Amino acid sequence: MTDNVKESAAASKVNLLDFDLEGLTAWCAGIGEKAFRATQLSRWLHRHVEGDFDNMTNLAKVFRAKLKDMAEVRPPVPITEKKSADGTRKWLFDVGNGNAVESVFIPEDDRGTLCISTQAGCAMGCLFCSTGKQGFNRNLTTAEIVGQLWWAERELRRDAGVTDPNDRIISNVVLMGMGEPLQNLDNVLRALHVFLDDNGYGLSRRRVTVSTSGLVRQMDKLAEDSPVALAVSLHAGNDALRDKLMPVNRKHPLADLMAACRRYLKVAPRDFITFEYVMLGGINDRLEQVDELVELVRRENVPCKFNLIPFNPFTQSDLRKPEREQVLAFCRRLNEAGIVTTVRKTRGDDIDAACGQLAGEVRDRTRRAERLAQQKAEAAPLLQAARRSE
């Protein structure tokens, strides 16, 4: 068989990681198999993290033969893997056509968290984000999203010598990697179905978190379909500043965002929204800005917690890290106002795996250079004021 024929045969096979249980059941029905076969197959794929049909021992031989002919388990394959001194691991996954995305595993005493990407690049253009500086190419498929968890869990189990499918290494999943998850809503929802299904990874809704820059209509759709824990990128307590930091605010200002948060809380697995707040030296780290945040969430009646993230500098950012004392004072003032607030630990900084540093490789198709020049011009007064405050 020639290489071209082999490639054509592989391309015609269905990638089973693209299906949630409903889709898998429909596909099995289409090849003459009963629904319980889909359940068995899902458990092999996601609980056992198995990709070899010959090892799926409780499947009928005839069914396994069909699977070999018609299907495959094809996660994205890592180009590189880096290990941090603190145990953090980062994979750069090839997603084709010169694009690659990053995933990060963060081990802690009481949990293991995997940060997953949902897009090749990001079109949101937030001033402080390394991913956004690369521009945007495309949404990831369901298989590319699920496949990051599939690959990482399999590798981590092998390294730890874990063979029991109930002994998961990854206990928490956060969709906080490259991209805006809610801009890729259909594929993200299918991936969430797999993560949450007892015949999939069986994670609780409290242990899966979707982060968003504030896409209001998509937040409502997420609440209707799969209301997992929600983290909202806030970064400012007024529209004027947030407009400069996050272009999305011009379309979905704070009043609309807070209203969407209130609606989400009606079905959320937790009784609060987590607000992510990247602290930028001289821009949004002043103590009077704490009072503005407190006033905002009280006025809008949004129960919340704050997660403060000291900015991690990267090339082309023109932004600076806040002083440690300023971060602690900011945190203390929020806590004194009765809002539970934490400072995110910097993990994997030595392998560029810290928050805001994920970059991967993106073949931009969104006129990045033009957009960055405009954004830089608009932010110039803000940056100059920050430098004067040094």
Automatic annotation (TrEMBL):
Q: Where in the cell is it found?
A: Cytoplasm
Q: Which cofactor does it need?
A: [4Fe-4S] cluster
User: What Enzyme Commission number does this protein have?
Assistant: 2.1.1.192
Share an example GO biological-process annotation for this protein. rRNA base methylation
What CDD domains does this protein's entry cite? Answer: Radical_SAM
GO CC terms, sorted = cytoplasm
Keyword ATP-binding in annotation:
no
Q: Which UniProt keywords apply?
A: 4Fe-4S, Cytoplasm, Disulfide bond, Iron, Iron-sulfur, Metal-binding, Methyltransferase, rRNA processing, S-adenosyl-L-methionine, Transferase, tRNA processing
SUPFAM superfamilies reported in the protein's UniProt record: Radical SAM enzymes (SSF102114)
Question: Which residues are listed for [4Fe-4S] cluster binding in this entry?
Answer: 122, 126, 129
The UniProt similarity line reads:
Belongs to the radical SAM superfamily. RlmN family.
Q: Which reaction does it catalyse?
A: adenosine(37) in tRNA + 2 reduced [2Fe-2S]-[ferredoxin] + 2 S-adenosyl-L-methionine = 2-methyladenosine(37) in tRNA + 5'-deoxyadenosine + L-methionine + 2 oxidized [2Fe-2S]-[ferredoxin] + S-adenosyl-L-homocysteine; adenosine(2503) in 23S rRNA + 2 reduced [2Fe-2S]-[ferredoxin] + 2 S-adenosyl-L-methionine = 2-methyladenosine(2503) in 23S rRNA + 5'-deoxyadenosine + L-methionine + 2 oxidized [2Fe-2S]-[ferredoxin] + S-adenosyl-L-homocysteine
Any one GO MF term held by the record is: 4 iron, 4 sulfur cluster binding
Q: Work out whether the entry's keyword set contains Iron-sulfur.
A: yes
Active site, renumbered:
102, 355
Against PROSITE patterns, the record matches this protein to: RADICAL_SAM
- Put simply, this protein is called Dual-specificity RNA methyltransferase RlmN
| Domain Radical SAM core: residue ranges | 108-350
Binding residues for S-adenosyl-L-methionine:
179-180, 211, 233-235, 312
Cofactor note as given:
Binds 1 [4Fe-4S] cluster. The cluster is coordinated with 3 cysteines and an exchangeable S-adenosyl-L-methionine.
Origin organism is Sutterella wadsworthensis 2_1_59BFAA
Any Pfam family the entry gives:
RlmN_N
Leftover remarks: Reaction proceeds by a ping-pong mechanism involving intermediate methylation of a conserved cysteine residue.
- Describe its function: Specifically methylates position 2 of adenine 2503 in 23S rRNA and position 2 of adenine 37 in tRNAs. m2A2503 modification seems to play a crucial role in the proofreading step occurring at the peptidyl transferase center and thus would serve to optimize ribosomal fidelity.
